[in-house]
């Protein structure tokens, strides 16, 4: 058995009197991949920030043993020098700098006179890339030229340049395509074979099953258990994470579907960088009362562009004819859309869904702030009552409604964004990747909410890259491929193969 590399014992961490970690344990052996699982807000990222000294020694309780000695690191620089390197969910790269400059930022090779030795830096970066079988990446190119998946690999190369013995990956595939994910998992397996240990944090249990040697589960800041991956199933992990059994990941419920309430005609979106290219190519569809309409397709197919145009926030030139309850409406801005009863939860909550420095409650009421204003004054008591009700409805884990929303986990931020878009009581709700970066328990809650809403007569359009989610939740599925509507299927026995075939098959006139 490999030697023990890391032992965290009885770790505690408080924020403003609220205990975020309560006696957490974690053991990692050399060359081992440990999957760290828990719901949003369970304390996974906080735990790793303790380990990597984002929260320095003295600000938390318990002990950390690293290679047989107690670790009392006061800074990230100290943990990195010891061989512990964390790659955060939000990548820490400078897009305008080259790949090599990013890898050695702050540690640049120096030559005569103390000047940066660019030739040596590029040579070292290229050798590192070749060693990781990433020779296709030009280390002299700015990072901005590369995809999200390639940037994630560059972050790993940066970590390994620091001689990492333990690599911490926090939700590394949350924004990656399937092929990019496979590349990343292959790289981690290769690192394991070379003796590099890894703590792999992910809500995607299929990735944990594919790559982890063992799994540690935490819940509400407390240690639940640890097991070898060979001795545990995904259903066991889910039960440990949420503290209860889940009979189905998709709680599909019968609900009435009525008449057509929303119609989009001839939606065309032009590429902002090249107006001769259509990102959405003359798409038309209808939506019925109480219906969940799933929109599926491959990455880059035009799904987000389509719903952005409907909500009035597409950044390039576009045209769209929109009818609500049979009447034409004009939607050129999100404010106009909300006024007509059309709301959208955006794909990128960090960029478009939240105001990070505002409180959780203030984010929730941003879309309805006028409702609380009279004579230039805000009725703060009524606003707070509604905030408390929204937090309770969505089970948002927050120490206080006044806490900055940036302090919440990604899943709880997502719940707050959904609450914000439900506040205006829309007739049509668009959800673009509603469960991205959300744990299995929170997904279940969002699905239950969606079925409650359609039972009340709301209509929902859901864009999702997760095929099981589309098939598990939707009443009907639109398939988009290269900006075209390539399929409109009733979800009765619909299979992933049928959806994928439609997505990759050009329409006859476009062949």
UniProtKB/TrEMBL annotation:
Superkingdom, natural source: Bacteria
Region forming the signal peptide: none
Gene3D superfamilies tied to this protein: P-loop containing nucleotide triphosphate hydrolases
MF-aspect GO terms: ABC-type D-xylose transporter activity; ATP binding; ATP hydrolysis activity
CDD domains xref list: ABC_Carb_Monos_I (cd03216), ABC_Carb_Monos_II (cd03215)
Amino-acid biosynthesis recorded as keyword: no
One annotated Gene Ontology cellular component of this protein: plasma membrane
Compartment list: Cell inner membrane; Cell membrane
Membrane topology: Peripheral membrane protein
Keyword terms: ATP-binding, Cell inner membrane, Cell membrane, Membrane, Nucleotide-binding, Repeat, Sugar transport, Translocase, Transport
Coiled-coil regions listed: none
Assigned protein family: Belongs to the ABC transporter superfamily.
Annotated protein name in UniProt: Xylose ABC transporter ATP-binding protein
